[in-house]
């Protein structure tokens, strides 16, 4: 059954309308696909697949129903090539079609059934019909099944496509990479790598080329796990595809690059932050998954202790001053700050953030991206935004004395400033500011509180196993519970025994004694002892309380927080 060429445009609209009516995609997805199709000069249906908005299988089934054509399943493909003397494998691959059946009627007329990834390709159908002297009956092919059949039936084509030694210019090399990255198998592979990571709740995707393979790893709850291995020859295509999605320069492979990818995964838009760097066997790519739907902007849900939440909310209620969140990279500082900002966001309040990078878009909050390459750094932006009449300012990180002093001046002039530092404890933040060169009187005047935190893995609720609390844990860590839990492992937690992460934290509220110690040039230990005497729970204490509740394990707490002997 053929579809006239004049019906091609109407059929394209029909398939889009059909997909929308079936709930396979929404109007926003269709608009994105149309925009990409115009730019890339492909059909909107192809764009839907490349963007990951619709699967190849769903599209093939939809074409079958819209065009009233049979769907060619895996069993439909022949055991040996049909008419190999008339049809070259190179042409069939380019046309993305394959003869699946040949019939001759009593009157001598020949009919060739043709499985087509693009059933609207009039040129391919006509060309094959003329070459074979046959009438063409079209069938709709799912691309992955079609390509598997082509590889099985024409294995010599794989060898013919291997790179040949030649003088290749940079321009030729770039075009070759673009072509490789735009091939359907590569697009599908990259979409699968991304889709599996999002579906399995990974936080990062690592693509690492080696001499003999490409290693794909996902990070779950802070730990990397092997996901899959691909042939080394696919490394340039996979990496180029990711760079194209992030609008990076695919010809530049000598320098690190950073970018962002916004893509729909299973119909849901997800943002990825991508970073590349050259290595011995090609470019390393790391993608941070910024899926807002997987993040909870609630202090209690994040695992924060009641005392920490109470002290934090008191500090946030201050009309001015500086609130610091400290901890190493990856300890959840940005999520805590975003939660604080969203709790403060109101119609009568203006909030401006200066970030590097912007992790998530926050509704109703003015967010500014730092761009050091054009001189737009934290200090420069902080000086400027004070003149924009904000009530609350969030600075991604205080990295130097200049930024610290500008933040302090903003706090002294009636602004509440939130920021982060890289220190191991709350008390260490005070000595860190002093080491930067900030005056003691300025620290005492503006500091409203310091939250230090870590992230620890949560025990899987489906498989955690109770155990009697060891005597050592009772005496050394003051765990009063008779029973604690240990990890076991099940499919729900990928057999790790842990699923998700939670915060453990300590909150230091400056008081008169800490101010006295500050002016006396006391060290970090003295400041911490004073905070504990003022009833601050340390991270170790809040962590062990989480162990007693059955949330995590002693091993997790000790891995995150070094216990004093």
UniProtKB/TrEMBL annotation:
Annotated Gene Ontology cellular component terms: plasma membrane
SMART domains attached to this UniProt entry: AAA (SM00382)
Pfam families assigned to the protein according to its UniProt record, in alphabetical order: MshEN, T2SSE
Keyword Transferase: yes
One GO molecular-function entry: ATP hydrolysis activity
Keyword Metal-binding: no
Record domain AAA+ ATPase: where: 319-442
Entry similarity comment: Belongs to the GSP E family.
Protein name stated in the entry: Secretion system type II kinase GspE
Organism: Acidocella aminolytica 101 = DSM 11237
Organismal lineage: Bacteria, Pseudomonadati, Pseudomonadota, Alphaproteobacteria, Acetobacterales
